[in-house]
Each structure stands twice: as C-alpha cells, then as structure tokens.
Amino acid sequence: MLDLGEEKNPESVKLLVTPNDDTADYVALSRCWGSPNALLKTTRENLQSNLEGIRISDLPETFRDAIVLTRDTQY
Fold first, then answer.
1. Which residue among 51, 59, 71, 73 is least packed, with the fewest CB closer than 10 Å?
2. Does residue 25 form part of some domain?
3. pLDDT tens across 5-44, in order?
4. Residue-by-residue DSSP string for 5-58
C-alpha cells in the first residue's frame, strides 16, 4: 500500500505497512506487473528506503497518473 501523503510533499509517496486488522480508505490499481525482473519491486534491500519515500518521478506513468487522480479526488 502507498501512503500518498500530504499536498505539502507532492514529490514523493511512501510504502505503508499496515496491521492485518487495520481499516483505511484506499484505491486499488490493477495492472499487469510484467516480468519478474520489473524495475518496481520492494525487496529487503530497498524496504527501508521505500518506507521513507519513493520519488513519484521514479514510478511508471500509470502509477503517476493514479497518484495525481487520487490526490485530486482526496483533497
């Protein structure tokens, strides 16, 4: 799950880990993930970095579009 954050930081989002019993508003993006070697993957090596922030400009265009649309609807 991605935390889209506040309007004050429009340049990044954060990976969000929630407890199994947590309830929150969310939007789901369904997409074909492609090959197992896809660029966008959270691993042990990048988990902490993704929890701190992911630059939106580093995401595929589909994700960027979904973030913009969701933020426009949310605020």
1. 73
2. no
3. 766 667 888 888 877 766 766 667 666 656 666 667 788 9
4. --TT-TTEEEE----TT-------------STT-S----TTTHHHHHH-EEGGG
